[in-house]
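Researcher: For the annotation table, I need C-alpha cells for Carbonic anhydrase 2. Please keep the output clean. Sequence:
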Amino acid sequence: MDIKKVFENNKEWITKQIKSNPSYFDSLAKGQSPEILYIGCADSRVTAEEIMGLEPGDVFVHRNIANMVPNTDLNVMSVINYAVDFLKVNHIVVCGHYNCGGVKAAMESADLGILNPWLRNVRDVYRLHKAELNSIEDEDKRYDRLVELNVQEQCINVIKTAEVQRAVNNRNLTVHGWIFDLRTGNLVDLKIDFQAITKGIADIYRIT
C-alpha cells in the first residue's frame, strides 16, 4: 500500500460526506454522545462501526488484542470509566470474533515475548472452562468456543468495575457479549445470562 493513497482516500471521503450532508463536519465537531461502548479485538478485519452499520459519533471504541478487559490494564479501565461516568453510555459491548489470532496464540506453547503476560489472561479463561473445552474433539470448534467463553469472562470483568455497577443500578446500563463471524459477516449475540453466572460470586465483587 502506498501511504499517500490514504490521504487521497481521505479527500474523497470528505467530498462524499459533504455532498450527502453539507453540515456533516459541523455536527461532528460539536461533540459526541454515543450510546454504546464497544470493546473489541484490534484485528484489522473487524471494524466496529462498519459491522454495526453505525456512523462516527455513535460508538465509543476500545480495541486490543483478543478484546481483553483485565483490571490491571489502566487503558481499558480508563476507557470504561470515561464512557460510563462522563459519556453516560447505556450499553457496553464486548465483541470477539471467530478465527481470533490472539486466542489461538494464547494456546500455543511458544515464547511470545511481551505478549506472554497479556495472553495469559486467555489461558486463564481456558483453565476456568477446561473440562468443557477439552470435551470438544474438533479443534476448530474448540477454538470457537474459547472465543465465546473469552467474551463471557471479559464481560464479567466489565461487570466487576465500580462505575458499571453504579450505572446498572442508577440507569439500567446493560452489558452484552457478541461475536463477529468473519466467515459469514454475522454479528451473534451470545445472550449470556450474567445474573445466573454471577449469582454465586456477586457478594464477592459487589462494590456499590
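Researcher: And a one-line annotation?
Model: The two ends are 50 Å apart (CA to CA).
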